[in-house]
């Protein structure tokens, strides 16, 4: 039933009398979490700002035919090796007594839940941290380490504010061995799909409860596990096709709120990358990539919000899952951008224990495997762009590793649509796939008039 349905939906026009065009939200700068009152500082043992300035500028030097490994991989070097823990504390000259006095905050990432023979299992994941009080002058100095051929004082006021905000999100103190407790409530809305509720999910009639996470946070302050929750009026996942959304509130802070999605056994899930497919990033142009990531408000790529809104309105019970290998410290802007611009959905980011380049190149496959294994009866659409070598390898590999689950793969050809992308991409991973299973496209409108139908008995299209 899914394939004929998808065939019908993808043939629908983007706008009609019955499908109102979504009003594209203008991304706004997230309010800064930083207090501008200077913290008393002490002479520190190591100046991380200098380390970052040298490392970033050296790594981002254009090397002609010697393509930088981070560009070839689609993983920008400025998203690597962020300081954590004692490195942050010593760099900022903060004493333990000052850390103890800071309030605890939580980054809570929108999770997904699956149905088991014991009921709903909901994935809780995020990070517990403390936000140092950093003076604006110090933040400017730290932020300058992430910019090329410019500085904070040369940016527009809103760009400077965002650069400080993002830098402040990097220079946080992760808290280990912390207990986390959550309150679940029915969620009336999430996302900006143009339909009531903001995405392909419903507000359940129940689900109210308090959950104590069974483990303390890791050394990096992370928590990530599935926890069995009480039904309390929720629909059973093996008898409903509805995706049910719950608001998740973290006890003791107003910073740890998110929306979780209870996803039935069967149905259709889209797993979507974000950079250079949903937003303009230009990872392949380091100077622009830095500005677009650290200073400029996030901007959608062409009319992709319309495409996703159309899918959300038109495909019943469509589960949206957003997967980015961006490190979790700086994903608040990503989640805010998705919430304001695209249908609501669950989220995956790079946890702190995947910190170096080698681990980063494996995190996408790790997260893909996790969601495919969680939903062995669901079908998946994979969306990304060709500038990520891990995508070009991992997406076709999912077809082999999980037969019958991948419905189709849509890849934006960045080198054909942006003359700033000079780097070739490797399609060897697709050589053994049925060519009707994947499509390289140049503009979003190409996704509007696809004729997808079942070609084989093994679930391929």
Q: Approximately how much beta-strand content do the residues carry? A: 15-25%
- Structural class designation: alpha/beta
Supply Rg: 22 Å
Based on CA inertia axes, which overall geometry fits?
A: globular
Count of extended strands: 15
Element string (H = helix, E = strand): HHHHHEEEHHEEEEEEEHHEHEHEHEHE
The helix count comes to 13
Q: How far from one another are the termini? A: 13 Å
The low-pLDDT segments are: 1-5, 11-77, 451-461
Instruction: Report on the biggest sheet.
Output: 9 strands, mixed
Overall pLDDT confidence: 79
General description of the model:
- The chain has 461 residues and is of the alpha/beta class.
- It is built from 13 helices and 15 strands.
- The strands form 2 sheets. Strands 1, 2, 3, 4, 5, 6, 7, 8 and 9 form a 9-stranded mixed sheet that branches. It has a 6-stranded parallel sheet with strand order 12-11-10-13-14-15, covered by helices on one side.
- β14, α13 and β15 (438-441) form a beta-alpha-beta unit.
- The chain starts with a helix and ends in a 20-residue tail after the last strand.
- Mean pLDDT is 79; it is low at 1-5, 11-77 and 451-461.
